[in-house]
Amino acid sequence: MSCKSTHWRALLRALLPLILAGGCSGQEDNFFPGYAEADYVRLAAPVGGTLVKLHVDRGDRVARNAPAFVLESDSERAAVQEAASRVARAQAQLNNLRKGRRPDEVAAVAAQLAQAQAAHALSAASLAREKKLASARFVAPSRIDEAQAALDRDAARVRELQAQLRVARLGARSDEIAAAEKDLQAAQAQLAQVNWRLEQKVQRIPVDAEVVDVLYREGELVTAGSPVVSLLAPQYVKARFFVGEPMLGKLFLGQAVNLRCDGCGAPIAAKLSFIAREAQYTAPLIYSKENRASLVFMVEARPAPSDAARLHPGQPLEVRLGPDDRVTP
Asked: 43: which residues sit within 8 A by CB, 6+ positions away?
């Protein structure tokens, strides 16, 4: 059995006589004994590390976004630098693929094309000259065939270099560029992950609250997810009390109640925020009409945060229904 379960049973055994005695002693049925309770904010980091700086101590009142604690982050900083380098490398590779060849490489291909065009022009002139000589019967017809072959060869060389020049001025193929873009996105995602881990090494106060407990001290190793600071915020303070089964049907969420406690001064206004669906205690008796009063149900009421500061968890309370509710004595 857990400590929390033992606490509940002991508290119910103490409160049950008071609840049941109200129906037998003629006590007003709009009065209920209870106590103050709170839901604590346990501040933890999702990553582990040695606690190097603790900015708060037990009993401090802290404001939202105030620094809470810092864990060592040497490994995370190195990981960020590595990931940033990977992003820069992937970006450079992508930029290189999107561009054509270097200007000097393009200029070299253009010069080769100019030479080929000049050779093609010379071959064309030689073919024309050979045709004139052949028509005058000064050269054999085979010379025309040789000149035509040279012209065709030079024309093919021109077309080849023209294609090379177009390729030199283009970037890489689209699928290569798409692959490089995916590599860049993966590197950027990795950088975001390590940046997030680095940011988690510094934790801040999430709400205006009071520091109830500090669970680690500087120099201790904190495992991932382990609370380091326990906070009590006024908006999470509530009154908890128990009502008998005959009274349950007369209560409703949002109903006004007044909280009274020793040394609290004026009554504290609150509203019902929770009504249990199941009985918290059941007597070992048959559910006859005479024994229904032995069933009690847990009810919670929340005061305004400004008034909740007057309450302390565990403090005994008297809960009375407000004057404007729908319950009749």
From this structure: 68, 69, 203, 205, 206, 227, 228, 229, 230, 231
Token pair for residue 75?
């490994």
Q: Is the pLDDT of residue 317 over 60?
A: yes
Q: Residue 62: what pLDDT?
A: 96
**What is the share, in percent, of the chain residues with pLDDT greater than 90?**
47
pTM: 0.65
CA distances from 127 to 113, 118, 132, 159, 207 (A): 21, 14, 9, 19, 93
What is the fold, at CATH topology level, of the domain defined by 3-70+212-321?
Elongation Factor Tu (Ef-tu); domain 3 (2.40.30)
Task: Report the Cα 158 to chain-centroid distance in Å.
Answer: 61
Q: Which CATH architecture has domain 100-170?
A: Orthogonal Bundle (1.10)
